[in-house]
């Protein structure tokens, strides 16, 4: 597929052919989902090919005039160059000298949530510990959460974490034994707090009790309004201090190598898993038995407070993960090459093969870690959803295109990390708009070419390119998440890559 403003250099006939090829897949897809007259499809095929070709031109023009970021997109002929290249080997780290400071006490933290929520929280807590001049004990990961059940050292390289940050903060694996018997003061910090909260509310507790245990960590630090050095430290922990264990890193590199050998790949974070659907109450396209199963699971989980959910209403508001069928339509509408490898970064897709039919008809090269690796290569990671999520995280970082179907923590943290890696293309789907368009298209009130061009147009500036994070005073929930766009830490494209 041609990209990056070099459309003159791309073979136009290939583009045309691809327009048809893509379209024939649209047809397959639609046959598996909707019934339609075939002559109408042929008419649409012709019109679509025309629209497609002119859309390519338009996009080309837009790219030339557009922001500099697109120069970092691999143009069509460079995509192949990628194939030969390997993931860069991790540099042999030279650890900085320790920072010497007067220790105010000890901070213990218990992270809650899934892997990526905890990842962000770890970065926050390092920054807090640094600015309170305390000693941080290696964070404890959530063992009760539905989403994770591992120790820090099962996921992250704990020695690298400690040593690579030692010029900022002292981190210990365990509380010193002499402190073990003391009463530890536990509390959940107030959500979205700024540094003055930690200085004025938490530090006096640390001074008084010597050991303070922050027992919840999700979104406890504000997105905005923090000193620049704190924002940069959050990034430094995220992009340099946190490294997965060598076993996870090696397996991740192997997955990427296998994918690269076969050409470009798109990572689809298809968040269509049972837990997500049960939790969110989204059941569009499910059978009655499945709806019942999902509801039973939701009512049984005391942590999921919202019980009575109107699935259709939620879907129309754009609050549901896209279904595999909806996703397939959108990817085809966006003009994604049907030959591209699509790596599914997710656990089991709810409904299994039945729900994946349409996507596989449109994109035959659907793969996942279980199909790329031997079972023996994943044997180190049995039943450890966090380690599986870590593998998917690594593959997601490296992909040519990343498409999340829901804006959960993985989607957001990977989006931010890809921005850091040079504004790699992340397609941020506007689900609310898409659901409306999909419903119009499937009911026949919108033609394929109208549907496709609106989808393309609506996402032209939702590709993870440089922009300022949206900040809304007093409405932290509605702001852009710091970790999805840590713009303070992103190098301008005409400057060399920043290393810290
Ligand atoms: C932390 O230590 C630095 C010196 O290393 C000092 O300037 C700063 O005031 C200290 N902050 C607190 C909260 O103790
Ligand atoms: C956190 O600590 C507070 C105060 O000790 C306690 O009430 C609360 O239940 C604890 N929360 C968790 C998640 O452990
Ligand atoms: C920090 O938060 C407190 C309480 O929410 C607020 O009153 C204060 O103005 C904030 N400080 C800064 C520097 O944003
Ligand atoms: C993984 O979990 C499943 C179901 O929870 C269980 O049946 C299986 O024995 C577990 N496997 C391992 C290796 O722990």
Automatic annotation (TrEMBL):
It comes from the Eukaryota. Coiled coil: none annotated. GO terms for molecular function: glycosyltransferase activity. Keywords: Carbohydrate metabolism, Fucose metabolism, Glycoprotein, Glycosyltransferase, Membrane, Signal-anchor, Transferase, Transmembrane, Transmembrane helix. GO terms for biological process: fucose metabolic process. It is found in: Membrane. GO terms for cellular component: cytoplasm; membrane. Pfam families: O-FucT (PF10250). The chain crosses the membrane at residues 39-64. Pathway: Glycan metabolism. It is a single-pass type II membrane protein. PANTHER family: OS02G0726500 PROTEIN-RELATED, RHAMNOGALACTURONAN I RHAMNOSYLTRANSFERASE 1. Belongs to the glycosyltransferase GT106 family. This is O-fucosyltransferase family protein. It comes from Rosa chinensis. The lineage of its organism: Eukaryota, Viridiplantae, Streptophyta, Embryophyta, Tracheophyta.
């Amino acid at each position: 597929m041609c990209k990056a403003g070099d459309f003159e250099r791309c073979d136009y006939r290939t583009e045309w052919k691809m327009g048809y090829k893509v379209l024939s897949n649209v047809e397959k897809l639609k046959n598996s989902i909707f019934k339609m007259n075939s002559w109408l499809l042929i008419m649409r095929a012709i019109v679509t090919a025309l629209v497609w070709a002119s859309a390519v031109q338009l996009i080309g023009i837009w790219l030339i005039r557009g922001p500099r970021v697109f120069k970092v997109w691999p143009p069509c002929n460079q995509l192949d160059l990628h194939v030969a290249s390997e993931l860069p080997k991790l540099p042999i780290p030279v650890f900085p000298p320790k920072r010497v400071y007067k220790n105010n006490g000890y901070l213990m933290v218990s992270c809650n949530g899934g892997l990526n929520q905890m990842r962000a929280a770890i970065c926050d807590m390092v920054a807090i510990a640094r600015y309170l001049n305390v000693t941080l004990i290696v964070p404890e990961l959530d063992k009760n959460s539905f989403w994770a059940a591992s120790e820090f050292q099962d996921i992250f390289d704990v020695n690298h974490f400690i040593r690579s940050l030692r010029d900022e903060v002292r981190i210990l694996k365990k509380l010193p034994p002499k402190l073990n018997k003391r009463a530890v003061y536990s509390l959940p910090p107030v959500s979205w707090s700024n540094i003055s909260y930690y200085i004025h509310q938490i530090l006096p507790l640390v001074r008084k009790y010597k050991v303070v245990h922050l027992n919840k960590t999700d979104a406890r630090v504000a997105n905005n309004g923090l000193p620049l050095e704190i924002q940069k430290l959050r990034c430094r922990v995220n992009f340099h201090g946190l490294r997965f264990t060598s076993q996870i890193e090696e397996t991740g590199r192997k997955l990427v190598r296998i994918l690269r050998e076969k050409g470009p790949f798109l990572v689809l974070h298809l968040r269509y898993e049972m837990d997500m659907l049960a939790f969110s109450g989204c059941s569009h396209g499910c059978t009655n038995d499945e709806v019942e199963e999902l509801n039973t699971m939701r009512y049984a989980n005391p942590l999921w407070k919202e019980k009575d959910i109107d699935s259709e209403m939620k879907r129309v508001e754009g609050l549901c993960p896209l279904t595999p069928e909806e996703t397939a339509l959108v990817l085809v509408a966006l003009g994604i090459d049907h030959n591209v490898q699509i790596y599914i970064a997710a656990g089991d897709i709810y409904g299994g093969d039945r729900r994946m039919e349409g996507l596989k008809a449109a994109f035959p090269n659907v793969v996942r870690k279980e199909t790329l690796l031997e079972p023996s290569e994943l044997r180190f990671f049995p039943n450890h959803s966090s380690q599986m999520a870590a593998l998917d995280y690594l593959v997601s970082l490296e992909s040519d295109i990343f498409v999340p179907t829901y804006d959960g923590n993985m989607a957001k943290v990977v989006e931010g990390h890809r921005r850091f890696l040079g504004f790699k293309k992340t397609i941020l789907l506007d689900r609310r708009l898409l659901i409306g368009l999909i419903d119009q298209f499937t009911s026949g009130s919108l033609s394929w070419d109208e549907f496709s061009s609106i989808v393309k147009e609506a996402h032209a500036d939702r590709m993870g390119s440089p922009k300022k994070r949206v900040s809304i005073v007093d409405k932290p929930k509605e702001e852009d998440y710091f970790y999805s766009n840590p713009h303070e830490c992103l190098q301008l494209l005409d400057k060399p890559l920043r290393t810290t």
